[in-house]
Amino acid sequence: MKCSRCKKDAIYFQRQSGQYYCGEHFNSYFVKKFMRGIREDKLIKKDEKIAVAVSGGKDSLTLAFLLKKLQARYPFEMEAIIVDEGISRYRHHTLNAAKNQLEKLGIDYHIETFKDNFGKTLDSFVENNKENACSTCGVLRRYILNKKARELSCTKLATGHNLDDEDQSVIMNLIRGDVIRFSRGQNYYKKISDKFVERIKPLRYFLEKEIVIFALNNKLTFDSSECPYALYAMRGEVGKFLDRMEEVRPTTKYSLLSGYDKILPALNQCFIPESIGVCEICGEPTMDGTCMRCKILEK
Predict the structure, then answer these.
(1) pTM (two decimals)
(2) Measured CA distances, 265 to 19, 162, 236 (Å)
(3) Closest CA to 106 of 70, 76, 65, 54
């Protein structure tokens, strides 16, 4: 098929708009949408310092690439944080991809490991209970990212979550009955602790497949291997369900996120407290007396 704008060979068909895109016009569409999202949601202001969480996969490296482009338009500082969880036969490859691409982009980075921060790798934490790998990893990674971003005096922490990720989280939190996580969401946050670095998700309006195409189209070096613990996660099953829904009912993923965003401010005000205390063990912010990080370490 041919591009709807210039009649060159198309590399992508966008079902919701009926448009075909060649490589050049797909890049133009993607970058314009990204910049518009930054501007309309007021995600980054001039002279801020942004920490970008980089794993070595397509999403985080695409985000780093686009933020580097954004720096050319107006000034802000940026540093990357890479978390090495200690996953054998997997993390080594993603670390190399992250470091190589960040060095090409000229972005300074910091590597934080589970071993240095908690005394054990993720493999050791879940050696006898692999089903808990993703929840354990999520808690500890978020802890490191927030703490390191704060130590770097960053005003925002940018993550590479895409539209598929966001929709999956909405459904998963509903299934679990986790009202707090369901209400906390996305690019809308109530300020409840000075120790929390505000999170932004500039790619949350892009389909995962669009990010793959953009990364390949711009020759970004990324690792596409899957974490060995992913097969134990609910996220994969929920993702397959949403893919099936999107196939038979195009725009399902966009509609789900759009509807969620409309009710999110009300949920945030109803279920999220005005302020929270700190963990009695480590001093990091928590809604409980002991944070989840310390509960995991105690076990």
Answers:
(1) 0.95
(2) 33, 20, 28
(3) 65
